[in-house]
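[Discussion] Sanity-checking designs against the backbone

I'm trying to build intuition for which residues belong where. Below is a structure token string of 502 positions. I'd appreciate it if someone posts a full sequence so I can compare it with mine line by line.
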């Protein structure tokens, strides 16, 4: 192997022209011949016994060249990169320039770690939300406990909004029952909007034992065979139930929690809300600081460096769902996606992760951070304790160099945060949705996907049909063609259900 040319190109790439000599190439051709001759048929010779010269005379002198090149070039490329001391960070692009008995020459476009101009990384400033919790917030958190303790009690009066009516029903179109339009002893909360428009409104006012025919017109955006059609539902109310909420007192607290008093339960809910909002405020603050850090940085990042990060994210995600007993292809089908769509949705996060890694590595270099053997041993011990493993198992599973890199990145990020300042705080976060938000990773590997909620197994023909919007995931694979697959519609027809999209 001989490197005849080294040329820097744009986007942190270097083009190498690499020659493989006649002797090395001939050895590869002979190796390929010996490996494949058993499958070659030549008239006049037993299968696999034809001499190489005979095979080449029949099929051409270059019959083994392609396989021989594939046999040789990976090692030749690796040797050339090492010889030129290139810090390779992505997938190379190869191009054969010439090939013959004298050997072959190829070009390799190598993606290398870009030079980083760091910019400001000390004294960065970002706002931080104030974690306030109001009495209204606490009462919202208390609602699930109240709902669980609420009882449905049968009443003899007419049904009103908010009651639960236990009904039998059957739908008829042109005097004939239609598929999926029948149910027995179905508990319908009146006013919930669960059934097609006009249905619940006409049940209000009915008593237990009463029967009634409801005139219903299906929405025009409903399933094709029922959209816009006039139908009649025959309904019988078997029972009317009223929701009786519990008395909010110390006995209630004892029944629904481990606390002895209502005040203690509320205090616990308040403390958890404060902690949740403080954690979110800190995450948002740190994210804003990191965003400033990478915005201040200048680096000409090669596309293949991002491709490699996308691959890591895809592999990590596949491993996570595999641990849950699901195959990647099944997940993609469920989400109405393909690999290319998933890769595309993952790319912005992959790009950001690459920038963060480059910026933090530059901070570590600027501050001359080093990781000692003692720090690596301490991290191994921590991981062993966390995952209930032996120290030797962790050492076998995780490379020391990878641990050292991760520790250096953490040391750099801790340094940036320690030297940052909190700016003017934004308006206090007081929304329940923020309070309940799960703790996310500091740097998310990919967009979250929201799987479609499963519908009740039993047909609910008069219930609204809702479709949850599918989020595109975050993670993908590098070299697949982009195709677009249609999102799957809700599987089972529910003809009396209102079709809405949320």
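Best answer:
Here's mine. Compare freely.
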């Amino acid at each position: 192997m001989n490197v005849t040319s080294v040329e820097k190109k744009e986007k942190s790439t270097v083009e190498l022209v690499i020659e493989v000599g006649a002797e090395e190439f001939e050895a590869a051709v002979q190796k390929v011949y010996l490996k494949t001759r058993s499958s070659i048929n030549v008239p006049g010779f037993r299968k696999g016994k034809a001499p190489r010269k005979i095979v080449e005379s029949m099929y051409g002198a270059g019959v083994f060249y392609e396989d021989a090149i594939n046999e040789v070039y990976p090692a030749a490329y690796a040797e050339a990169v090492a010889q030129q001391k290139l810090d390779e960070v992505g997938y190379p692009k190869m191009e054969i320039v010439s090939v013959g008995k004298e050997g072959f020459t190829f070009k390799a476009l190598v993606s290398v770690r870009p030079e980083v101009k760091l910019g400001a990384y000390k004294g960065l400033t970002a706002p931080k939300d104030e974690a306030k919790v109001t009495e209204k917030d606490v009462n919202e958190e208390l609602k699930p406990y109240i709902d669980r303790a609420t009882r449905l009690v049968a009443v003899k009066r007419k049904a009103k909004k908010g009651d639960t009516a236990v009904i039998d029903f059957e739908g008829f179109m042109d005097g004939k029952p239609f598929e999926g339009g029948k149910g027995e002893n179905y508990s319908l909360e009146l006013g919930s909007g669960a059934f097609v428009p006009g249905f619940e409104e006409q049940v209000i006012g009915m008593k237990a034992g009463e029967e009634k025919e409801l005139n219903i017109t299906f929405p025009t955006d409903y399933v094709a065979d029922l959209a816009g059609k006039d139908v009649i539902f025959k309904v019988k109310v078997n029972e009317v139930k009223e929701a009786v909420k519990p008395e909010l007192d110390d006995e209630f607290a004892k029944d629904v929690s481990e606390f002895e008093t209502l005040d203690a339960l509320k205090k616990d809910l308040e403390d958890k809300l404060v902690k949740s909002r403080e954690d979110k405020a800190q995450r948002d603050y740190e994210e804003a600081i990191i965003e400033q850090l990478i915005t201040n940085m200048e680096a000409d990042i090669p596309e293949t460096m991002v491709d490699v990060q996308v691959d890591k994210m895809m592999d990590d995600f596949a491993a996570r769902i595999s641990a849950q007993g699901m195959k990647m292809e099944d997940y993609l089908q469920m989400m109405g996606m393909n690999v290319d769509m998933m890769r595309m949705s993952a790319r912005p996060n992959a790009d950001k992760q690459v920038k963060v890694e480059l910026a933090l590595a530059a901070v570590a270099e600027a501050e001359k951070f080093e990781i000692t053997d003692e720090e690596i041993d301490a991290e191994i011990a921590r991981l062993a304790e966390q995952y209930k493993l032996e120290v030797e198992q962790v050492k076998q599973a995780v490379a020391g160099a990878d641990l050292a890199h991760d520790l250096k990145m953490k040391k750099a990020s801790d340094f940036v945060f320690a030297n940052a300042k909190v700016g003017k705080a934004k308006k206090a976060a007081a929304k329940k949705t923020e309070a309940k938000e799960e703790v996310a990773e500091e740097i998310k590997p990919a967009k979250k996907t929201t799987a479609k909620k499963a519908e009740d197994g039993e047909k609910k023909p008069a219930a609204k049909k809702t479709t949850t919007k599918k989020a595109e995931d975050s993670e993908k694979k590098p070299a697949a063609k982009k195709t677009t697959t249609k999102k799957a519609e809700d599987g089972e027809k529910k003809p009396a259900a209102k079709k809405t999209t949320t």
